[in-house]
């Protein structure tokens, strides 16, 4: 990715071409699992060009015709750590999804869970050239936003306009065609570590696939798990995955903040393995079968066979109480929630009128979490499941597939971003634009 603007426009063009052909795949590369869903776009409204600068511009109808999952390999904290292992896992899951769909897929849209995401709020303002806002005016005001010092080695993943103001009127989704004199824009910029992004792109290309889009895992989990009113009034989505926990805040149907915590369900499994001295596979089974975070009086008397295949008969016959298992799991889950609370406090979440928090992701299914989370995060907490998508198999409708379902919605209904507009970079005398263009040229 040598040029931000051109490479993102190229990926958007690939996505449009794939949708016009009717088939595209989404790829969720997580720490615990890799999921692939094949989407078919059909019907008279299978593809429409962008119709606005809103959060769901150019909506399209689709259905899932192929789905597959496999255990993730070579991924830690949502980042590729062993290229060959991850490549093998991606090839496996893509081939299985293609077999289920009975067709070949060339273009995929992937999500990024790690990479230390950081959010920035940008603002720009321009004077209109005519009496009404044109497409060119929108491009100019987006280009007029000051580029913050995001640091070396960082790359822009999302650059989304979240609010337009025309003269004294604010809160506009699409100002084009409206009369006024001064146009202002607020933009949300999300950056991630460049190495993490480059490794994922290289791994996908090694699998003989064309990358037609990239999205933040926290972002896509939010658009799939938050209902429309929550996105409008303000809510936070906490996607507790295997190796990382994504945090995203939505307001007026736009993402205004995203971050991640490098803790997840795999750390809970590791604690069980060390605490009870059992293999990781057995610890994962104990967590899903008998785990919890709130102990009751019965749990002291409920004994769990730990099992094992060490060959030592006495060791393999050990047992532990469920209360002991909960005592191992609860401190780690509390640590994850406290780290999430710190991220929300840093983002100013308390200032929102609506403070709804939705927990999703595979680890959110731990029994008792709905009772523990309100004590740390606040009273307005619920466990969320992704929206229903046509054709999605029953096994892929749980909270663990929030980011995969969100990627489907992102593929079909992408929000307009900075690179969706024709911006002739050499025509603007604005000093802020010159700084932004120089930064893009130097770093991409």
TrEMBL record:
Primary location recorded for the protein, binned into one broad class: membrane
Boundaries of every SHS2 domain copy: 24-225
GO cellular component terms, A-Z: cell division site; cytoplasmic side of plasma membrane
Keywords: Cell cycle, Cell division, Cell membrane, Membrane
Membrane topology designation: Peripheral membrane protein
NCBIfam families noted in UniProt: ftsA
Function: Cell division protein that is involved in the assembly of the Z ring. May serve as a membrane anchor for the Z ring.
Name under which the protein is recorded: Cell division protein FtsA
